[in-house]
Amino acid sequence: MKLTYTPSPKPESVSSQDWDDWTWQLRHSLKSEKDFSTYFDLAESERKVFATSENAKEVFNIRTTPYYASLASKTIVNDPIRRILVPHEKELFDPKQAMLDPLGERKSKNNPVPRIIHRYSDRVLFLITDICSVYCRYCTRKHFTGSDQAFIKNSEYENAIEYIRKTTGLREVILSGGDPLTISDGQLERVLIDLRAIDHVEIIRIGTRMPVVAPMRVTDNLVKIIKKAKPVFLMTHFNHPRELTSEAAEAVERFVDNGIPVMNQMVLLNGVNNHPAIVQALSRRLLYLRAKPYYMFQCDPSIGTDYLRTTIEDSLQIQKELWGHLSGLAMPNLAVDIPDGGGKTYYTPDFETSSSLEKRSYIGWDGVEADYVNPEASHIVKPLDYELYLDEWESLKAAKK
Ligand code: SF4
Questions:
Q1: Using one digit for the tens of pLDDT, what is the confidence trace for 364-382?
Q2: 104 occurs within a structural domain
Q3: Burial of 114 (0-12, 13-18, 19+ CB in 10 A)
Q4: Closest residue (by CA) to atom 3 of ligand 1?
Q5: Whole domain around residue 230: which residue ranges?
Q6: pTM assigned to the model
């Protein structure tokens, strides 16, 4: 079957020139009940949140680009994309678990200076803006995102760069936020140049939802700036195959055609993508564009997300059904972030039926039964040249926070 990508349904009242301009998309973002009413027949259950948000700070920011709004159903409240971007009164209900900071990012041990999250020894998150062009209802960083701080203050920026410079055990910097691609080309270029001037920073990642919610942001100039700072990995965040319009597909291909690898991190969401048919459709379409389906995250218990979360059992079942039918290239890793900053844990289907020192027994995904017998222990030797890499390995292990 040929995989297809269809264009977004641009409203007739908007010119193509405006529609294809990311700054127009940001300037014309829908924020109020009145704005949303131009794209959606809002239900009472949705209007209630807009009314509450006028008086209550606890309602997470509401915003979308017109482009992303056009991908959702105008009339069906439970449409998967509409569930991601239009607030629903269920956000206001008493949840079973509701955390403002499920990843424990605000703990002082993880937040050494403002805008830097340092949870793993060899990498940091650098929150260069708190602005997103769409506020996803399931966002895990509601404690920071959308507090209108736009680009980082100069003093905070200098302190963050200094922290990265003096922490010599770091190997990776992940630009995040907010959405790093909402800042201007000039601002992004400055960040990338400053990071590339630090010898020990090997890999830069950019975590962004802009190719999903405003793919026109991926201009030739943006790609040129990112390409110059190589190696940079683009971490996209597609959750549903309908988000892969022809504009989004073109944006993804523009990155990979220019040598910028694209990895996708989806979140399993109730009523959005919690079915193996949806996950396979998304993964195959991404892979065809040469974007690697990387993670399938369990939704974090962030405030207001109870109705969007799946159970871990549902997620495991989806993974098990996909196993064997999707190639390893197309299969995303199922991961759960242990609440309160416990780090990631991974799941894979367990096909093992018994184990001993001598052998392990399995029944595979399609019912094949077989043993893996360990080799003779006396045959095991170390690689002859491992000492060549020992210093590097020791320094990585020593790179404690
Ligand atoms: S784009 Fe990312 S950071 Fe922004 S609201 Fe969505 S999930 Fe949160």
A1: 999 999 999 999 999 999 9
A2: no
A3: middle
A4: 178
A5: 116-347
A6: 0.95
